[in-house]
Amino acid sequence: MKDRKKINSAFFIMVGPVALWMILFVFIPFVFITVISFMHRSTYGGVSMGITLENILEVFRPDNLKVFGQSFLLATLTTLVCLLIAYPFAYFISQKTAVKKTVFMSLVMVPFMISSLIRLFAWINILRRTGFINSFLMRLGLIHSPLPLVYNTTGAVIGLVYVLLPFMIMPLYSSIEKLDRTLLEACSDLGAGPVTAFLKVTLPLTMPGIFGGIIMTFIPTLGLFFVIDLMGGSKILVMGNLIRNQFITAKNWPLGAAMSLFLIVITLVFVKIYKKSGGSMDALGGGR
Q1: Using one digit for the tens of pLDDT, what is the confidence trace for 193-205?
Q2: What 3-state DSSP class applies to 97?
Q3: Is the pTM of this model over 0.70?
Q4: String of DSSP letters for 231-286
Q5: Sign of the dihedral through C-alpha 122, 125, 128, 132
Q6: d(CA 210, CA 207)
Q7: Quick check: 227 and 156 in contact, CB under 8 A?
């Protein structure tokens, strides 16, 4: 009996704080958002009592669906660019010694100890018409007028890629590092070239890391409105901006809650697809 009490006490000490955190900051806010999404908007903003499906139907209005489509296109482009950069980089790191792996991964993570707003303003100074890149290219004679690299879709994609690239690198690195190198040696012994070995062995075995990176990049892109506002010059409307505007500008909390609920559902669908495809939650967190 005493041993059982000790086990229960240890379990409560270890799990209790995490469970309390999840209840306070995940479960209760989710229930709150869900309930509000089925209520009426009051006359002067806020929420009034009463159940309605109007907000859910409002989410699927043609103009809102157009914004959702733009959001998915931007998220797809950002995710694709992150994948094309992160995969070769993660593969390169995985070939190094333990010390060099630590150094390279530190170089990836250390800049993110600085506020993302400060780093984004630095990128604006680099990319603007009188910034370093345009000045350098004009001095080389490669361009005759400054390129529009910021305050547009290009700037928004650059900002999103910069912010989310580590979230693509981590699961890819975890997946590639676990790869059994003897399989590649067997491919080589059987006469397969590097390209064939990559397509037949490396790529299929690292798909959990690829899909994990896609989830961790695609979903945040839909909600990182501050990056899009800064780097896109507030000219691009995506789901994050739309939800923010409903809460802050339009004072339509029920509709904002309904849109937030829709975004949560999309996230859960992606995670479900990932688990069905055979992925593990370790790959999402970059764990080994």
Answers
A1: 888 888 888 888 8
A2: coil
A3: yes
A4: HHTT----HHHHHHHHHHTS--HHHHHHHHHHHHHHHHHHHHHHHHTT--HHHHHT
A5: negative
A6: 5
A7: yes
